Amino acid sequence: MSKLDIQVAVEDGDWPSEAELEAMSARVLGAAADFLLREEEQPFPDMPVEVSLVFTNDEEIRGINAEWRSQDKPTNVLSFPAFPIIPGDRPGPMLGDIIIARETVQREAVDLEKSFSEHLTHLMVHGFLHLFGYDHMTTEDAEEMEGLETRILAELGLSDPYAGQETV
Questions:
Q1: What structural domains and CATH numbers belong to the chain?
Q2: Does the pTM of the predicted model rise above 0.90?
Q3: Binding site annotation covers 130?
């Protein structure tokens, strides 16, 4: 997907190699971007849009979560859009940052009886959609976002992560 310039940084945690994460990120975010272009008719600039992925640990993401969301606890993924965007708007040259915590992803994968890779893929898609203005604060918004996630993950050969769960 030439529409994305993906920057990967491994800051802390027992992650796969940076090369593996770069390949996975290109595959997952490329599929998500292709889906948005095709199915949602998401406009993209003519030049590649930059997105950064930061792979860290629970301690680091807890501090970020406390500072930016006033929630002093670790979380699986945080997304920080570079600019406010409404779903369907054309993004600027910098889409934003996605930060993912290793220990939380691992715990959740075990709890969900999914592989680490499958859960990480889901969280990458989830974080990416947040950068495009999608959210899950209301039932309607959650249904829209979860529907997009499910369809993108299906294109990647993964099952519906929300099957059997209530929305929001």
A1: 4-155 (3.40.390.30)
A2: yes
A3: yes
